[in-house]
Structure formats: C-alpha cells, structure tokens
Amino acid sequence: MTEQLPVILITGGAQGIGKGIAAYFLDKGWRVVVFDQDADAIRACRQDLGNPANLHLIQMDVSRESDVVAAVAEAVEWGKRLDAMVSNAGLADPDTGPIEELELEQWQRRIDVNLTGAFLMAKHTVPHLRQSRGSIVNMASTRALQSEPDSEAYAASKGGLIALTHALAVSLGPDVRANSISPGWIDVRAWQAHAPSEQAPLSGDDHGQHPSGRVGTPRDVAAMVAYLVSPEASFVTGQNFVIDGGMTRKMIYKD
C-alpha cells in the first residue's frame, strides 16, 4: 500500500505569506490545500505555482461557519487526511482611524476574519487533526505585542489569536499541538496576486532597522511553520514565535 503524503491546509493561502507557505510545502513534497476568499488571487496562485497535482484551492470565507464546514469537508475528501492547519487568513491593513470614529462594523469585520475565522477553522479541523496527531499554527502579528496609532481592531484580533492559541494547546493536548507565529515586517510584494514583474528594491534604511540586517520574506515564516508541524517540535505547544529580525527588541529613539 502506498503511503499517503502529509496534507497541510492554509487559509488566506492564495497570496502574501500564505502563498509563500504553500510554495514552501509543495517544494517539500506535501499535499497543500489553500482556502481564500479572493477568486482573482486563487486563479493567480494556481498559475504562479504551476498548477501542480498536489495543490487544491477552494474559494471560501473563514468568517462564515457554513463556508468553513463545506470547505473542510472538501479538503479532507481531496487529501484523505489532514496533518496541519495554518490559520493565516486576515485583513492585513491595521489602520482603522481614530477610535472615536471607528465604526462597530469595521471593528467587527476584523474580529470576524482575524479571530473568529481561526476559531471556526480549529473547531472544524480538530476532529481530523486528532486522527493524525497533527498541529495548528495561527498567524498572529508583532502588533499583538506592540502598537502603532489607530490600530485597535487589528491589535485586539491578533492579541486574541495568541490567547486562543495557548487555550487550544491546553484543551487539545496531547493529541493536537497549537502554536502561533507573530511576523514582523515581511516583504510580500512579489507574493501578491498579479504582482508587477519589476519592483523598487527596499532601501538600506528599511533593512538596517532590523538587527538581523534585512526585512523578512515569506520563506522565513514558512520555515518556522515547517518546524512547528514537524516531529522535531513534538515538545512545543502553546507558544508564540516572533519572526521579525529582532525588530521588536530594538529600542528606537527620535533624533
């Protein structure tokens, strides 16, 4: 009997960090399921990644439970198993303006996608992850740990995601491990849908403000995901890993 390849599910996987994670795991020989709401991004992702047989893309909205139920069922039917789930889908723009002007609808949409979506994905993938003794990775943000002005909704959603992660780790262990990653500045321009062929390089100042000497790439995040879902991380659960080139550790003063 032929051994089944491991299967990873990535939400928000048609562009940005999620697309980088999908490409990384395809290169490692995994079967990859991508969930994304953006139909144009799905079409571009399929083309950019070469439409391999080991890639399955599903259009859906992680904030709608009916979508999650149907999409997870389709993913498991296609993959015949589920070994890892990455909740990466989220509204990326943190700036929602002054708190006095922040509409409840705008606040709620970020909570629904960034946080409730991760809850729904965990709820409906856990039965399958228990069978494989699999792993959950939630994509948080350094903005869960430090803030810029006018980012209350985004910061709250990502902070809640870190708390959800350690709660899941305690509730689901030892069958399923759960960890989160908080990326800092990750240059995703080349990984966006219909990215231009030529882009201006980042400046020396952009790279120089990181103790590591450079801005991050999706591959930096993907490598951490690969570690966290691997047997080598079997003693790692409930943790948040900051991938930011040391930026949040650097004290910055105005001249």
Automatic annotation (TrEMBL):
The keyword Oxidoreductase is annotated on this UniProt entry: yes
Region (Disordered): 196-216
Assigned keywords, A-Z: Oxidoreductase
InterPro entries: NAD(P)-bd_dom_sf, Sc_DH/Rdtase_CS, SDR_fam
Keyword field contains Oxidoreductase: yes
Pfam families: adh_short_C2
TM helices/strands, residue ranges: none
Alphabetized SUPFAM superfamilies for the sequence: NAD(P)-binding Rossmann-fold domains (SSF51735)
PROSITE patterns: ADH_SHORT (PS00061)
Family to which this protein belongs: Belongs to the short-chain dehydrogenases/reductases (SDR) family.
Descriptive protein name: SDR family oxidoreductase
Species whose genome carries this gene: Marinobacter lacisalsi
